[in-house]
Amino acid sequence: MKLYKTERSCISAARVDSQLQPKAAGYIRVSTEEQVRGGVSLDAQEERLRAYCAMTGLDLVSIVREEGVSGAKHLESRIGGKQLVSLAAWKKVEHIVALKLDRIFRDAEDALRQTKTWDNAGVALHLVDMGGQTLNTASAMGLFFLNMMAGFAELERNLTAERTAAALAYKKSCRQAYSPTPFGFERSGKNLVENASELATIQQMKTWRTAGWTLRHIAAELMTGGVLTKSGGRKWYASTVRHILQNDLYCMSLQVDGGVDPSQ
Are 100 and 127 in contact (CB under 8 A)? Predict the structure, then answer.
């Protein structure tokens, strides 16, 4: 009988301790590209988060998983991200835990705006692995370092985008092949060679656009005429027509006289 009471007391004490522990929600994410490259898996991230919460005395009540979702999207525009924000807004949790900054934020403005909202609501963000160190925005120093790192992360992303754009512009100017092969050209080793038939189609598209045709009208006319897309499909979209008309690769191959800018 005494043993039974002791067991009940231990169970009750455990429940009380659990109720007193600060509630936390974990966020784990991988993008499609990272899945292909075999990056840090969702399960591996979850294991790190659970170990961190156990070590710091946080009660991990929810794990939000996002698979195949780009970090470039703002947090609230992601399905899981919206769920995470709701958990904090409805006072279900007091702490948000993620493995790294780029798991939850890629955009500095989004990171600073959201963490400020959480800070005002008394919700702290924890980053488990920041170069071997942990970061907690519950402290002034932690919030300061988060602001700095978010800015540096976006700077690096923008610099990478600039380098990529410059490399693509160089390839276009030298008629070097790039992926995907653009309509109007074919690959010949590392170079692009003109496809006369497709370039004639682009010339006609530009003529129609100069005459005031809408992008949807042009797409419909191409389908009516049985013109195939670069992938061999028969379905043309206004967005595809716009992309072709705005590609500066064709400036060296085509001339359009007068009228409105056909790419607009």
Answer: yes
